[in-house]
Amino acid sequence: MGSIKLEVGVFDNHAHANERSGVGAAEAARRFKAAGGRGIVFVALLTWSIGGRPGDRDWVVKLYDHTVKNAEAARGVGLVSGAVVGLHPAECVKLLEAGWRAGEVEEFMRWAVDLAARYVEEGRAVGLGEFGRPHWPVDEGVRGLCNRVALYALERARDVGAVVHLHLERGGQATVDSIAELARRAGIDPARVVMHHIEGALAGYAYARGLSPSVPIGRRGEFEEALRAGPVFVVESDYLDDRSRPGAVIPPWTLASKLRQYVAKGVLTEEDMYKICIENVRRIYKSLLQI
Q1: How many independent structural domains does the chain possess?
Q2: Which pLDDT tens digit goes with each residue over 82-104?
Q3: CA nearest 155: which of 208, 123, 192?
Q4: Domain containing 139: what range?
Q5: pLDDT of 248
Q6: pLDDT value for 8
Q7: Please, which contacts does 121-125 make with residues 24 or more away whose CB atoms are closer than 8 Å?
Q8: Mean pLDDT of all residues in 202-224
């Protein structure tokens, strides 16, 4: 693979874009491509991030459509891109805090899962997400509710041949084991289950369980820790596109620059780069993305 050089192009597996608070998808995509980007997956934000109301079904549709348009904008500048649509577990918490009963929240979230599955069936999205569990401490009732929603998302993704991006706590191997068990119960190919923002040190363990670890580049040392297990993961910026939170996460164009610098400095081989940004992406998305 010596002919690959730095022409492989970087794939950002999980990013957000929001023209209300940042540069928007088209500009983010242009900057990413100029820095060596090849492909990017845009994931749904929170409903209130685009001015919506939690629990409002019309706003969920607007949120999903916004995410689809972000991917279309990226494709418009020549990138490979797909949309992942769904509701963040923070939506569950917000509704419970607003006085919704647990059963009402679960019914609403299952509707959101079904809607996301329909977007995949119609070719507008490649995956469901980011469903999952809060990364902050919550009581067992909330955790159980989010687990039931996550399991349903995995089942529906199995039905429609979709990928799932899961938002999770960083609970070490126990977190990985719990998701491997949910995937087993759902009967979904675990390679299609993306553990978003996983701890770098757990990338090898998640891969060994059949899952797809997605490592954030912005956290110091995480990439290097992940690489100890070999190039068995994909990378993500988790870009928020929010001017009010500068430095919270890196933008996609910085992710691209960092990876290319790693190759130039010999930290990452060209073969590793190809594995991370091409082969592992194909393992997850298969025919959903032509990378």
Answers
A1: 1
A2: 999 999 999 999 999 999 999 99
A3: 192
A4: 10-288
A5: 76
A6: 83
A7: 121/160, 124/64, 124/68, 124/83, 124/85, 125/64, 125/67, 125/68, 125/71, 125/82, 125/83, 125/84, 125/85, 125/162
A8: 94
Q: Is the Cβ–Cβ distance between 39 and 8 less than 8 Å?
A: no
Q: What is residue 246's predicted lDDT score, i.e. its pLDDT?
A: 77
- Beta-carbon contacts of residue 64 (< 8 Å; ≥ 6 apart): 44, 83, 85, 115, 116, 119, 124, 125
Residue 2 belongs to some domain of the structure: no
Location of structure tokens 């995995």: 154
Strands 37-43 and 163-167, sheet pairing: unpaired
Question: Is residue 226 pLDDT above 60, yes or no?
Answer: yes
Place of tokens 């954030």: 216
* 4 domain-assigned: no
Report pLDDT digits (tens) over 238-249.
999 999 987 778
Residue 57 within any structural domain of the chain: yes
**What tokens appear for 250 in the block?**
């890196």
Exposed e or buried b for every residue in 188-223, given b needs 16+ CB within 10 A?
A: bbbbbbbbbbbbbbbbbbbbebebbbbbbbbeeebb
